Amino acid sequence: MQPIKDAASICKTIMRNGYDAYIVNLPLQKKILDRQAEKEIDICTDMEFDNLLKLFPDMHKSDDSMCKATLSQGGITFSFYQGDLGKGSYIDACVTKLTPRLLRLMEKQGGFSLHGTCPTIPQPKDVYDGFEDFSSGEIKLVGIPDETLKRDYLLAIRALRFSANYNLPIEANTWLSLLRCARRVSDYVRISDIMDEWRKVEAENMWKFVQYLFDTMILHGIIPELMPLTRISLPSENGDSKETIWKHVIGTMRHYPEELPFDWYGTLACLFLDIGKAFTGESFDGKLLFYQHHQVGAKVTRKILRRLGFEPEDIDLICHLVKNHMRFHFMLNDKGIRRFKAQFEYPRLIELARAEVKADNGTYTEFNHNMKMLERADIDEDMLEPLLNGQKIMELAHIHPGPMVGLIRDALLQAQIAGDVNTLEEAVRYVKDYKEKEKIQ
After folding, report:
1. Which one, of 132, 121, 184, lies nearest residue 159 by Cα?
2. What is the CATH number of domain 229-378?
């Protein structure tokens, strides 16, 4: 038939210019052409309107949001639709089989109808495409959720993102469909597209998004290295109960943004802080030990982040946080706190430690000690010891060993820190004056 020949010629012209093009459902269109006088052909292509106009100057932009353009020539009308839009579409959803025009004709001639969300009908590009209006108070896929997901399984990740960011529940049937499609998300959606969605999750909501990924078992296919953490339990802080390492991880992700609310990378690092425990755990005397889990965890994290397509500088940052996150968990002395403060991104390391304490509902003994020691880190190291030792103080003040020696020593140190005493001569004079002032015998 001439209309089909002309349509094939148009498709070849588009394809010679480096784009895809094909006639939609050729057998169906042939039947329709046989039954009606109007000659219309529907074509799918990924070429945009501006480029189509260069090839076919008589083309007009369509008023229909689903149809990008129309072309009339030789008594035939050609309608151009967008090709497969779903980056993660199912196999049989990659080829458009129906258009709104064909659907209307089928309803008239055949007396049956298909829902407008059929994955084989081209859809306009929109981030909310595939979802019902959120005014209902829940995240819900339009039409039959399983069929809608076939058009693009990336919608599964987007549904989780919307739910986490907008704090809206996921509708029951939509949730069941997400559970059923977990394997297909890994099969058909590019990891770069998944991470593009993940990056749109706000830091304070990331814990909820990650928990959704786990609950739907999508995370199992993306980062399987995390799964052992859900099967290792540790005693709680008071020892009355046990909780999995995974619960601690989610708790840490939840509390970290309370102090640094916009730190997306720091929050993501919380996800990997304990990943090394799955590789280093061993039981000894009834206790589980995880020696060097931070060192091993940094190496595992680097491998995962490379697989997820992170930039090298972002990988270095996150791995640095994982590797050094234990430093602030132990009581540090003056040298230790100075070494810690010299660390790259040490404020983030402090907040990682704070978040872990909160996640365990633990004690702040070590944390508070180290926070006080941080104040001393700003003092010159030479000023942390008095210019005169205890023996010299006893000689100058003519006193015997006892508490008074310590009092004079502390007073001398405070005078040095305040800048009132700067030399050895000034220190000698200070001790003698102190004795006279306090009338020490």
Report:
1. 132
2. 1.10.3210
